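Final report, Chapter 2: Outcomes

The project's central promise was a pipeline that accepts a single protein chain and returns its three-dimensional structure in a standardized token representation, suitable for archiving and comparison. That pipeline is now operational. To close this chapter, we reproduce one record exactly as it appears in the project archive, with the input sequence first and the structure output second.
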Amino acid sequence: MPDDAGLPQTIDAGSPPQASSDAGDPPVITAGSPDAGDVPDASTAAVSIVPDAGPIQPCDASPDGFDVSVPSEAEKMACQPNPVPNAPVAPAFDGGVAGPCDETYPPNASIGHSLRTFDAKGHLLAQVDYDNDGGVLGSAENIYDSCGDLLWFRNTGSLGEFVRRSHLGSDGQISRVDSQQGTACTSNSIGYEHDEQGRVSAVLHPDLENGVDKIAVTYGADGHTAMLDYGFANVTYLWFPGGAMQEQDSQTTSGFFRNITYDEKGRLLDSQGTATSTNSFSSETDTYRDDGQLLSSSGSTDSGCSGSSWETTLTYAGGLLIREYSKDETYAGCVGQPTLVSKDFTYPQPNVQVAQIKDSRGADYTVRTVFDSRGNALTVEQSNPTGSPWVQTLEQTFEGCGAIPP
């Protein structure tokens, strides 16, 4: 999705590391600790896949009431829905699968191996990234409240350990966020104002570190959040009758804006707005078939006479993807350099796809993917150039870690 620079973000307890959604380079959590020994089995309980980081260090100067310990079960159940909505996230995997339990990358990737566990709602509970020798690069543990918001997380890596915990007040809203990086500790208290119906009408000093002192909340006739006013920016929302977000429009006083629309399944339909400055723009438009498969995608980034654009169309037969054609263009000094890419797909066996890929710059290679019964890739191999030996670029499994919905 295009860059949303300059726009206010959802105020919450922070974002946990996410599973990789494709066969490209995996995300690094944070670079790493020395050595982990043998890689554990992903089918074990969530926390057990994470190497023991030991007790949390004491703070150099602990704020009053500071506490980043693991929240209790009762605390996890005491929440009320956050008045600041989260943008929808379209499924990255088919069949309701949350993500891969066990993922292995090619030897030249920045990460050699990743393990993950998930809860029944598809939230990432734990992730460990390993190098190609079995040493730990980074780990993360996440705990969510019953409303689905991140309540506590702990990351470890070469930069040390980072822990953050949100505390819930008597009204079920976040009343304080405590964070610890090594021995440095900070605490941010959050207050609320309420309207005549008892709903949150303002969130007070939710993120002073980033200049957010107050968020005024306005509700629509459907009861959903209709607008957030940050003082320096506002965000308006439209909702489908079933409660899914339909549109999110952001505008700052400095001239940044972003207008985004979704379908009822949370998939992006259109995104338009500024990018890294008020003089640069980015866009993306996607269309889908009735069965939910992507039909086309196009977009661009534009900063005067420099930028890039892409157009991709996909063709299906009998529900199977048989061709993908793309035109990618980068331009500088108002002169474009287009690259045309064609991908032709065949299916020699059930759940096996072979892609013949060629581009206008002379590339010619083959990719073979084996899928599970839900349509998620189990292995990806590449022959580059076509006819050369196969090299595995991805292997992943989905069983035994809570990734598959019950």
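Archive annotation: The first strand starts at residue 102 and ends at 104.
This record, like all others produced under the grant, will remain available to the consortium after the project formally closes.
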